[in-house]
Specification:
mainly alpha, binds protoporphyrin IX containing FE
Length: 223
């Protein structure tokens, strides 16, 4: 019986239109959400390590000692997964001359007043966010390695460790603001979350937000 049903009626109901466009593979979505989960755990434990006001958060990890041991391991795991994921996307995030126009018209786009041409899979705002994520994840990883006790920290001098500790906190704060913007943009752009949860977008979404990518995926001209 199962085999005679069309794919969309097998197992569970779905609202996926037959002409939906695939935006992310299962592996990409799983990696992205693993990175997001690790980020939340890292941010929470980072706050608890940063200031006594947030010390209570360590209870969520079992004990302060467990949290202190886990934090760097979670950080290395995030960096490995993030760079594995990001290495699949770099080509689509290369900045093009047309991205300047998008950046100039961004305020109008945010207010829904302006239609701005987007040539590729991502708009200029997403591309800049992508490259900043690369820089800040790398910065957090490198500074984190320098202050990682008891393993690597003893190989560095006091000045290097102090500077790395300070930069680690600054990068962590900037990353928090960046991920906040990323989260807001993901929720604010209707249909975007579905791309990362279900893997597909509607043709209307693709034509409206990324007409160039729509053309590439369908061979059709976006009206
Ligand atoms: C905290 C919750 C998060 C939510 C709700 C979220 C949501 C999303 C969504 C919906 C997309 C798809 C956008 C599109 O295809 O147009 C996306 C893409 C992406 N996300 Fe996240 N994300 C989160 C956390 C993170 C974190 C922590 C990182 C990395 C540290 C990250 C890195 C990325 C990257 C690199 C992309 C691809 C965008 C590009 O290549 O320009 N996300 N995210």
């Amino acid at each position: 019986m199962e085999g005679t049903l069309p794919p969309e009626r097998r197992g569970f109901a779905t609202d996926r239109p037959p002409d939906a466009i695939r935006r992310y593979s299962e592996a990409e979505r799983l990696t992205h959400w693993a990175v997001a989960l690790l980020y939340v755990a890292l941010f929470a434990s980072g706050l608890a390590l940063f200031h006594p006001f947030f010390f209570w958060i360590s209870a969520l990890f079992g004990s302060p000692t467990t949290m202190r041991i886990l934090h760097p391991f979670l950080g290395v795991s995030l960096a490995v997964l993030f760079f594995a994921y990001a290495s699949r996307l770099w080509r689509d995030n290369l900045l093009l001359p047309s991205d300047r126009i998008w950046l100039r018209r961004m305020p109008g786009y945010m207010n829904g007043k302006d239609e701005t041409p987007v040539e590729g899979k991502y708009n200029a705002g997403q591309k800049l966010m992508y490259w900043s994520m690369i820089a800040f994840v790398a910065g957090l990883l490198l500074t984190g390695l320098v202050i990682w006790r008891p393993y690597l920290a003893p190989s560095f001098g006091m000045t290097a460790r102090r500077t790395a500790g300070l930069l680690h906190a600054v990068f962590g704060f900037v990353m928090f603001v960046g991920i906040g913007v990323h989260f807001y943009a993901a929720v604010w752009t209707r249909g975007s979350m579905r791309a990362m949860t279900r893997g597909w977008v509607t043709r209307t979404w693709a034509r409206y937000h990324h007409p160039g990518w729509y053309r590439r995926m369908t061979g059709k001209v976006a009206e």
